[in-house]
Amino acid sequence: MDDAIERRATGRPVDRAQLPPCRFSLDGSVAADDWPNFQVDGYGTWLWSLREHLRRSGRGALPAELAGSAGRVARFVSAFALDACYDVWEENGDGVHTSTLACLYGGLMAAADLLGDEQLTRRAREVQSHVRMTGAAAGRLCKSSVSTEVDASMIWLATPFALVDHQDPLFGAAIAEIAGELSFAGGIRRYPSDTYFGGGAWPVLTGWLGWHRAVCGDAAAARQSLAWIAGHIDDAGRLGEQFGGERRQPEMYAQWVARWGHPARDLLWSHAMYAVLSTELGTGTDALPSKDDPAFLRQ
């Protein structure tokens, strides 16, 4: 990170292959394969999550042993915030992606708070202005600099990273399109042209839209999202990556199955968003499926 920051600051070329990675093995080592590995949304999300953890655990201030890491990550995010990178789906490495910018804005604002660094706040505002200006030019917020589609990950702009207000008209237009065009069999798809395993509905995105609706006060709609996710938990307590692609685009589904096997059937991200949405709704008996239901998430 320090080398990349120094190269950027001194105007020297930056080799993307030498930039900090986004994918790691279970033991913490960098994943050594030929899959795209320059993606910065996770670094912004880590900064935001660090502050959230400190707030929710009642600690508040940044522990001294984490100050160096937080500062280094914040400087890296600040330096490369508006660079092209791979998006949250590990696609489109030539674009600047709206949901990635949401993560970076949230991370920079969190780091500014934790570190008391107003320069990070100013950089966050520059990221925010970039999103607003490009959205205004297009008439609504778009997926990226290389796509005018919407993407369900754009929900992050408001929930939870607060780059835009929930009532922002450009954001509202995007949310309406996400809820309409990307709705499939009760769940939410990634983006209109998605063909990955047939472009089915993802629990993580269905949960995210439910979370956003809960934050906005529409608990009934949020519970519908929660019920859809719960209905896709299998008898072993597993919640997969996506559902319904075999019905929506059977030929594309078959192509991906032949290439990689069936979609992931037990995905941590899916389970996490079920937990987040359940927590947002209060985990009451009116929000969660009955424990007598075999689809209920097992502990």
Quick structural gist:
The chain has 299 residues and is mostly helical. The chain is built from 11 helices and 2 strands; from the N terminus they run ααααααββααααα. The protein has helices at 2-9, 41-56, 64-80, 98-115, 118-138, 169-181, 203-215, 219-230, 245-248, 250-260, 268-280; strands spanning 183-184, 187-188.
Key features of this structure:
11 helices, about 300 residues, two-stranded antiparallel ribbon, mainly alpha, disordered C terminus
How would you characterize the overall build of this protein?
With about 300 residues, this protein is mainly alpha-helical. It folds into two domains: about 1-180, no CATH class; about 185-299, no CATH class. It is about 50% helix and about 0% strand. The protein is built from eleven helices and two strands. It has helices spanning about 1-10, 40-55, 65-80, 100-115, 120-140, 170-180, 205-215, 220-230, 245-250, 250-260, 270-280; strands at about 185, 185-190. A two-stranded antiparallel ribbon has the order 1-2. Strand 1 (about 185) and strand 2 (about 185-190) form a beta hairpin. Helix 1 (about 1-10) packs across helix 3, helix 3 runs antiparallel to helix 4 and helix 7 runs parallel beside helix 11. The radius of gyration is 20 Å and the shape is globular. The chain starts with a helix and ends in a 19-residue tail after the last helix. Residues about 285-290 and about 295-299 have low confidence and may be disordered.
